[in-house]
Specification:
It is built from no helices and 11 strands. It is mainly β. Strands 2, 4, 5, 6, 9, 10 and 11 form a 7-stranded mixed β-sheet that branches. A 4-stranded antiparallel β-sheet has the order 1-3-8-7, with no helix packed on it. The chain is globular and about 45 Å long.
Length: about 130
């Protein structure tokens, strides 16, 4: 059973940076696409970034975070990261790491549908305030 644990959230000033970590245990991430979603109060959960299970795969980003956020994966640590730079007032939310099982190697990923993902972490809060 795959388990995901997020960490790295906190309070940061506008323009600041945070790095979120998603540590996986139970199984390796070789057969999973990984995504970060976020949910702010009163808003729907939205996909922020995803990384496919191919080493040659292409990451995908929400338009408003492209060029500011970077998703990456360390296979040796079975951990996925979300580097968030130039944080803005629209970024505060609970950030969730999620994994979707794929029986085949995939070079692309999508994050428009949370129901396409099978396992979720408990979330980590990101707050942006001066």
């Amino acid at each position: 059973q795959l388990q995901l644990v997020e960490s790295g959230g906190g309070l940061v000033q506008p323009g600041g940076s945070l790095r979120l970590s998603c540590a996986a245990s139970g199984v390796t991430l070789d057969n999973y696409i990984i995504a970060w979603f976020r949910q702010a109060p009163g808003k729907e959960r939205e996909g922020v970034a995803c990384i496919p299970n191919s080493s040659d795969g292409r990451t995908n980003y929400l338009g408003s975070v492209k060029d500011r956020f970077t998703i990456s994966k360390d296979n040796t640590k079975n951990t996925v990261y979300l580097q968030m730079n130039r944080l803005q007032s629209e970024d505060p939310a609970v950030y969730y790491c999620t994994a979707g099982f794929r029986s085949a190697v995939q070079t692309i990923c999508f994050m428009h549908a949370p129901q396409a993902y099978d396992y979720w972490g408990q979330g980590t809060q990101v707050t942006v305030s001066s």
